[in-house]
Design goal:
Elements (H helix, E strand, L loop, with lengths): L3 E2 L1 H5 L8 E6 L6 E8 L3 E9 L2 E9 L3 E5 L2 H12 L15 H12 L2 E4 L6 E10 L2 E7 L5 E8 L5 E4 L2 H10 L3
Antiparallel strand pairs: 1-6, 2-3, 2-6, 3-4, 4-5, 5-11, 7-8, 7-11, 8-9, 9-10
Length: 179
């Protein structure tokens, strides 16, 4: 299929930077679409194309869970529509994509709250990073009412997709500061 390719390790290329792509992930039915802001061998950062021609926040995807990357006619068209609104990847969009602990620490410090998708991509946990113990990461969790009310511990292999700066996340973060 034209525009397809393995993303983890081989498919993501410098030529994809700034372009809209669609990623199929292992264990997730719905692809993730977005403008490629940066990537390395372990992680991909995209401006999140949540639906139609809407860019809402960012998504970080672990490269080894990517089954395929697509840049076909549909992605090219959506890309052109989004660009017609003046939306593109900017230098300020990049974040440090190093070790997972460093990424989580950066997101907590810079944005205060982010979400981690569950295994199937059907739900997410709003959280902030608390600590790492060996290969486990512990988070404070925020409920849908904007209250920090619990903790979540996940092993590295369970953390595949991290989202931040979406309208939903920013709204609950702002509300949490009022209660």
């Amino acid at each position: 299929e034209p525009g397809s390719g393995r993303a983890g390790g081989g498919g993501m290329r410098q030529r994809h930077l700034g372009l809209l792509v669609s990623l199929k992930l292992k264990g997730r039915e719905k692809p993730i679409c977005g403008l490629v802001a940066s990537f390395n061998e372990n992680w991909m950062l995209l401006k999140n194309n949540t639906v139609d021609y809407v860019i809402d926040g960012f998504v970080i995807v672990r490269a080894d869970v990517v089954k395929s990357l697509k840049r076909g006619k549909k992605q090219e068209f959506v890309d052109r529509v989004i660009r017609s609104k003046g939306v593109s990847v900017e230098a300020g969009d990049a974040i440090p994509l190093g070790e997972l602990e460093d990424i989580l620490t950066y997101l907590t410090t810079r944005f205060g709250v982010f979400s981690i998708e569950n295994r199937s991509g059907t739900a997410c946990n709003l959280c902030r990073f608390k600590e790492r113990k060996e290969s486990s990461f512990t988070f404070d969790t925020m409920n849908p009412k904007g209250e920090w009310d619990g903790q979540l511990t996940l092993d590295y292999d369970k953390i595949k997709v991290v989202e931040f700066e979406s309208d939903y996340i920013k709204s609950l973060k702002a509300f949490s500061l009022t209660i």
